[in-house]
From TrEMBL:
Pfam families: Bac_luciferase (PF00296). Keywords: Monooxygenase, Oxidoreductase. This is Nitrilotriacetate monooxygenase component A/pristinamycin IIA synthase subunit A. It comes from the Eukaryota. GO terms for molecular function: monooxygenase activity; oxidoreductase activity, acting on paired donors, with incorporation or reduction of molecular oxygen. Residues 39-406 form the Luciferase-like domain. Belongs to the NtaA/SnaA/DszA monooxygenase family.
Amino acid sequence: MAAIESNGLNDQLSQPKKHIILNAFDMSTVGHLSPGQWKNPKDQSATKRSLQYWIDLAKLLERGGINALFLADTYGGYDTYEGSLDNCIRRAAQWPVTDPVIPISAMAAVTKNLSFAITASTSFEPPFVLAKRFSTLDHLTGGRIGWNIVTSWKKAAFKAIGIDTPIEHDQRYQQADEYLRVLYKLWEGSWANDALSPDPSKDTYADPDKIRTIHHMGKYFTLDTKHIVDPSPQRTPLLFQAGTSPAGSEFAATHAEAIFVSSHSPLVLQPKIDKIRKVAASKGRDPRSIKFFATFTPILGRTDEEAREKYQELKKYVSTVGGLVLVSGWTGIDISRYPLDHDLTAADSTEEHKVRSLLDQFTVTSPEVPRWTPRVIAERASIGGLGPVAIGSPAVVADEMERWIREADVDGFNLGYVTTPGSFEDVVELLVPELRRRGLYAEEGGEERLTAREKLYGRGQKGLREDHVGSRYKYEVYKEDI
């Protein structure tokens, strides 16, 4: 967008087209962003508790050259709607939820190129425990692991682990910043590259003199240990982050390599992306090295008419209440309390703990959403959450993706589904060929066995870039103050 304003349309048209990066967006639950589709005979969401679902999905995504499977997660139910968890449970609105980490090894075993981005919170477990898990996953997948960093906000989740009140929003990000720095010390700074040096003649497997003990005494965490896992292919997993609140943007500009963003309009999203890039540049980072992925739900048909018919069929199974449960939980607004045509704003939020970047949507309208009312939300929330839904032939959906790339300055999309695996099958069989025809998507038969980070930055960039804050903690440069 900035290039259009400063150089004019002709210069923009002369620029080479940006390759679109696609991630599949799923969650280990029955009702992700389109609650109610479990009633649809074509939907297999209820089989996610079977390992075969994840194996088959991984094979499908690999066949389509999809960059990564991005797995959301949550640590508690949504109880804002009507002040109760009942409808969250009744409507299967992200309930029940199983652990997304468990199927990763099985999916990695049947794929070569597909990466995996797993959501995990900085709020509920010590950094050492998370460091061990992600180092293990990075080893087992050959470096195809990313971490979607979240700071948890649900009261129900904190109560589940024995804490009565969640940490205040901005303080959560301060805690997360220290959490990441502890992890960098473990992943980057504990082991020398040649610490693991098996020598049978000396009965020596690793050199203890080349494995540093990390002594960390901070505001939130205290640590005194060596990392227990030897360096994995990436050392630090590819770092995703979601959220564009002021505190979240500052955190993202410091730590994130890829950012998951969501908005109903590319024109609403672009200024937020531009701000994060500018903050990153002020920190000495290449602002273009941060890759932005927008949520996007395609409903595809071979023709526009077929796609519209598919959409009408999908609408038969929606759970409107399930959608309102999710939005009420995300925003802290109990939508059940308001008349259908009441204009909702951020002022209607009574919950201190919510997703501020989603709540901020209610302060901004657009041609796509001129008003935010319970009626509008009810129409939009049950298919694709509040994110954009594109309905049409591959050409129409590809046009819409190009518009988002152009107007919002995103690098790719986290593709939501309405039914699974059907929505993902349509992406692989219909959309990917159209994007390849336009020169917007990597061709089949590309290089194999790249790490998650190399797939974004190029072969050879397995570790953190030199301009990333985590590089300050690498073994050869890090000096700890004791």
